[in-house]
Structure formats: structure tokens, C-alpha cells
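I'm curious: can you give me some protein's one-letter sequence along with its C-alpha cells because I've never seen that pairing?
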Amino acid sequence: KQWYQRRVAITAGVHGHGNSRTLYSLRLCREEDEFTLLASHSLGIGTSLYTPLLDLDLNMACCVARGEASVMPFELRKEPPYILPLAVQNGIGTQYACAQVNKSSCDVMSVEVMKLYKLCKDSVQFITMLVPRLRKEYFQDDIFTTKMDFSSAIMTAGDWSSGNQYHVKSVDPCPEGVKRMSEVEVVKKGNQQSKIQQEHLKFKSHEAQRDELFNSFAEQIQKEAGPLEQDMMEGCEDDEWSD
């Protein structure tokens, strides 16, 4: 399997053999005079060839293979190390095949990045890949930038037959009326700092009230009890002390 986009190719295939077992790897190559290897990441010992399922908008590749139980996602970057492994999705039972669901079904507000159907021996499993985020009430625009618009035809059959170039339109995946995370980040930090300062002032206020109450209580006891007996006694002169 190969994917060509922006003069880059992704391959998932045989890396070598060891102890009569086949080793597989995911490779990222750049097209120059010929394909130059940028990075390679081992997929381990497999039972069959891996297929990379791609998301071009998120620069994400998900490697699946017949006879394996796990799904291995990766993030593809433009700078070293180029291939970044993500959390492995372990399912129940080995898979016979795996299909990628149209990304329009992914809920961006739940930070869903990919959905898959995994065909097993006696079941079909539905896998949803999520990015863990706390503030899900905001649109995570650091993850979802733009996405390709496939809601309409990119080109006509005549244009394709004539060899015309095509350009895929991009759309903004942010839902209408939802604030972006980048827009509220400064406000959020300011609110956190304000809350910390308020708690600090509140803590100091409680501490000051405690000290005032303790001092007042001690003064009241001293007034009611009068001077202590030892305070009324005369002390010894310095020359009366002896070793």
C-alpha cells in the first residue's frame, strides 16, 4: 500500500526476517530524485501484511493487519522523528478485516479522530479513537484545523479523461456558535490565576483572623488573672549566682 500526497509516500511492509518470522515496519519517504527514507517504525512480528488507513487532514495513519487483535495508530509529522506512535487500540479477538468509517461521522466536540469497523470471527466491533481533553465545551482547533470537503464531486468525468488537475476544497470543521480553544486560552489562564490569588488572599485573611482571635483571648485571660506570683518576687543579684 502506498500513499502519495505532497511528494510524500507512506509504506507498510516487510522490514526483514528473524528466527523464521516476518518483521513489519511503517516507513515514511520523501520524493526527491528518488524516494528517500525519512523515518521507519517497527510494527513488530505480524501474521500478514499491514494496511495503513489514512486521515490526510490530521496526518494520521492507522495500521491494521489480518490475524491481529490490535490497531496501531501513528501521527505523521513534518519534522523529526516524523513518525510518532499513539496509544494502541486493543480489541477482543483477532480481525479478519478492518474498514475506516467516513470521518463526517466523527464528533469533533468529543474529540473523535477516527472510527473503524473491525470484522472478527463471530462479531463486528466498532472502534472509536479519541484524544483525551478536559475542556470539551470548546472546539479543539489545535487538532482540527481544516478538512477536505468531499460533499460534492471534485471534478467531472470529462475533466478526468482530459487529464486536468483537481483541487480539493477545504472547509472549517468548527461547529457554528462554538468558541475555539485558542480564543479562550488566555482568558482561561487569567481566570485560573485570579482564582489562585483569591484563594491565597482568603487563606491569609483566615490566618490573620485566627491570630487576632488568639491574641485577644490571651489578653483577656491575663487581665482577669492578674499578675503571676513569680512576677511579684524579687530576683537574685548577679553576684549571688554560683557555679
